[in-house]
Design goal:
Layout: H1 4-42, E1 49-52, H2 62-74, E2 80-82, H3 95-102, H4 108-120, E3 133-139, H5 141-152, E4 157-164, H6 182-194, H7 198-203, H8 222-227, H9 231-234, H10 239-242, H11 247-255, E5 259-265, E6 281-282, E7 289-290, H12 296-299, H13 305-310, E8 314-319, H14 329-339, H15 347-350, H16 352-361
Amino acid sequence: MLCIFQLLPTFLHIVTDLTTMYLSDILFLLTLPFLSHAIASTSPSYLPVLIWHGLGDSSTSSSLSRIAKLINTTHPSTQVHIISLAPPSASPSSVGQIDQRASFVGNLTLQLSSICTFLSTPSTNPFNPPLYTFNAVGFSQGGLFLRGLIQTCPAIQIKALLTFGSPHNGISSLPACSTFDVLCKTITAAFRKGRWSSFVQGNIVPAQYYREVNGQTGEAGDDYLDYSGWLANINRERNEDRKSGREREYIDRLSGIDKLVMYMFEKDRTIVPRETAWFADKNETTGLVRKLTDRALYKEDWIGLKKLDEKNGLVFRLIEGKEHMDISDDLLVDAVREYFHPIKEDKHVNNEESRWDELRTQHIFA
């Protein structure tokens, strides 16, 4: 029988081999979190995206959900929020109907203010964790409202805004209603009865970006300048508005974004004139179209478009042969890839809590 002392060296050798083998496995497992972090850090991350829909649409529509998924597929892990004007207390089943109605009826100044507060308040901010810097996509009037949000909401920052068929320079007539759209026909009747009344200009959404021009001069009409409930203010078309002190705020905020990309549909018959999607001015009496760069709005830089253009931030895109909102998936994907860039080291992006604290200190938000 072998003495236990004779077997001891062999036993110790086996224990040493096993320890070495398992120790290497343990060390490998311990490094996995660091390896996964290194791998994750090489994948680009992107800003969250806001979407605002057009007239008669709703935040719960299947088409917008599909677009949100398309953005998320193009840039994986991107958080997307579809803006809704339904109150937080609304039941899930009623959100779509309430939001759709709000695209027709409501005060635009109050609506934008409510969205500004919603996005700017940590407890209601839709992103996890709360974020205050975004990219944005606006369809039809939603693009105009997002541009207005940039100008009037100091607590948020939009880096790139894509607008599709958006009436930046207003409309000369309300969009046609479908046969059985009772709500649309009701507001159209009210508009025709008193388009410049305080009730219409304070409660009918498309009326608040309706714009008339002088048939002889092609300039903004007197009634529009006197009674417009929203657009004349947001475009700073009144002399008194441009002397109010807020002009500099509008200029700084709009010129501070990276890109304003405006898509116009070549065959658009819903938004009249279609050139409004490019901020162009059209005299419906003479048919003369005056492009943005020829207008005082640009030359005198009433809202910051010239300053934005000087840093190559103003982009005009034509969707050839297409009618209003006829957008292919490929076009959307290409736009997202071209204009929604990976997050860079930026104090506004990576230090959101400090940004919020700074705004509270300035008493912008209580």
